[in-house]
Amino acid sequence: MTEKTETGIELDQVNIWFGEDEQRVDAVINAGFAVPPGGSFGLVGESGSGKSTILRAITGLAPTWSGNISVLGNRLGEKRDKEFYRAVQMVFQDPYASLHPRQTVDHVLSEALHLHGFDNPDKRIAQILDDVGLKQSFRFRWPHQLSGGQRQRVAIARALIIEPSILLLDEPTSALDVSVQAEILNLLKRLQSERDLTYLMVSHDLAVVSHMCSEIGVMNQGEIVEMLDVAALRALEASHPYTKQLLDASVQKRRE
User: Fold this and answer.
1) Quick one: CATH architecture of 9-97+164-255?
2) Host H or E run for residue 27
3) pLDDT tens, position by position, 181-198
4) Pairing of strands 65-71, 9-18
């Protein structure tokens, strides 16, 4: 599953729902897109649009779905094996919640290496801390001793230390101060270039997506209503009314 294929991630006619019969809620409706290896694709939309639900389906956390989801050329079924999690890792929105409060940075990183059978933990931990811009002294610190940006760097280090080829990014900067957001986004851009990573990013912020992604899918009420490349997005060239609404709000926010 770690072999390069023509497609990093591909979704075709994917529907995701919760509940059954009268209680059924359709969270994602007929979604489809493809992300090439080394590419970056963004899903943007307001809260509840279904974008994070797509990430959960890919990782096996949304059990009721139909259609086709393929990762590195392998069509996914109901369960994800160890090989899948070796190739695909996720960085979550809230760095405060994603790290165990009673585990040091060393424990967090060592555990990931142990679970996937990596040797030379000292060398690997030293290298990954350097890669994400943290001094070696951070290795034995506790989460409460770290700032939000430092915690997110640890979360990125935990995801990358087992050398995956795909990162799923679920609003990775939205819980951070504005001054720190750009640092984390630039770190992710650099790491993608250095490691030839494939990114699938979810965000409600068009500016974040346009900085990180070459292609964008706009989601509204569970549907991908428009696909844009980054050039069209930056030129404010949109055809769907909802996309135009998002662009207008983004422009207004920048003016403020």
Assistant:
1) 3-Layer(aba) Sandwich (3.40)
2) strand 25-35
3) 999 999 999 999 999 999
4) antiparallel
